Fold this protein.
Amino acid sequence: ITSAIAFDILPLKLHPFSQSTPTGLDCVGWKRRISSPVIADGSLDKTALTDDVGSEEDLYEDFRSSSHRYGHPGGGGEQLAINELISDGSVVYAEALWDHVTMDDQELGFKAGDVIEVMDATNKEWWWGRILDSEGWFPASFVRLRVNQDEPMEDYPLKVEGGKEDESSSGTRRFGMGQTTKDQMRTNVINEIISTERDYIKHLKDICEGYIKQCRKRADMFTEEQLKTIFGNIEDIYRCQKKFVKALEKKFNKDHPHLSEVGSCFLEYQTEFQIYSEYCNNHPNACMELSRLTKVNKYVYFFEACRLLQKMIDISLDGFLLTPVQKICKYPLQLAELLKYTNPQHRDFKDVEAALNAMKNVARLINERKRRLENIDKIAQWQSSIEDWEGEDVLVRSSELIYSGELAKISHPQAKSQQRMFFLFDHQLVCCKKDLLRRDILYYKSRINMDDMEILDVEDGKDKDFNISVKNAFKLHCRDTEEVHIFCAKKPEQKQRWLKAFENERRQVQLDQETGFSITEVQKKQAMLNASKQHHTGKPKAVTRPYYDFLMRQKHPTLPTTLPQQQVFMLAEPKRKPSNFWQNISRLTPFRK
């Protein structure tokens, strides 16, 4: 295993754990030979996949029936090492890359960054673990094994009675070549960062040269639009990561790794890492497109032939396409561990500290954009439930429901107060009327362009513009037309929530402009189409289900026969049972009415 970390410092128990992407994806370095139809540039000979020589199925069977075996070893070495440690009484810790949301009481739920004690790693895809007093199964690919397994859970160093550091755990303890324990721990983390980065570059190269290059030669099978959907901007990521790993290696001190100063590299590339946002947002679409294509045997055989010719491990394409999603989630964990073992006097300390905050912000931005894109389906479903809708779709200008609630509205003097439901999105406020008999049915009435409005707080008492007495009121005033609307809440706290929501709406619009967030026309149309289909059938939509299951399609996990087959909802919230209209809206809204 090329990413295994091995050291000659005997007093420390160091273990060759892989920290790179899905379990087994670091096994890329073993010697393999293959007689394959390649042309001068190292790519697949196009004629080798045509009917003149044989079908994709024939090529696939030729490889399978040959004497060579390129199957994924199943993480056997790693699993064996982990289970030997566990059986010897050692405690093995892993850190969660992202949330594992589950509704199954036999599975272990956790949030990104949680530390899990691994208690059994016998099964390849599913491990048994514990957090505090909770135990259960969890997907092995959702976690990263800690580099320094012998370290206690508490922050280093430990304190003993009298306020002095315990000498057995402090940085004054030395091993070989004058290195302290803390320096050795830092060496371990630095080596992990460098080795996993090199492995990651290999994965990206394999995807770009092993799959994309071959797909482009088969215009009869793939359109450019399909390739863009499947692979997203992974070629841009590959170019970015090649530059990044070169910068890391320049800062890597081979003789004394603990002296390496890598924090500045992360700071330098923090802006470029935002390209992962586009990839992560597109990833569910990639999984759905692959799910559709692999229902046809021709594509299954073609993808397998590409994998074999590139000498890649035995994991399906959607497994490889997961690696960038995992990688951007892993950086904050690696930097947090590096900071833990970096002395404040180290020249790299301030840069690592700043890099950790920067990469947390990058991950937060990516997660926020992903959440926003997932919300557009909910907004489209909401609009499809509104009766008598007029004008353009909400998604034409908006992508976020900021707040919703009931208000009394007066649009001009002597006008009657009207009780209405209001939905504040970025850029617009939508007004609806409840059905008199069925209160869960809403009718569209109007909308207000928030870009033209200013919000005015109104004191309780008589309003001079409308010549009426108001309570818990505020106004929306149009700067261009002098149009004025007055709104009254039932309680003072409701009014304050609305005023806060209007501030949040303006802040969201400004942030979107600064970060360049936008939704493509294709995404808007698809969301409305999905909502329309669901509205007509009256059944819950299942269009995103393949994304929950895509990892399990690589090698569907087999749990012990004593347990029922597990069903896990991954990388997103679990699919909820159909609920009424107001519960749907409350999940969209960050406030409670």
Q: What stands out?
A: The chain has 15 helices and 16 strands. The mean pLDDT is 75. The first helix runs from residue 56 to 65.
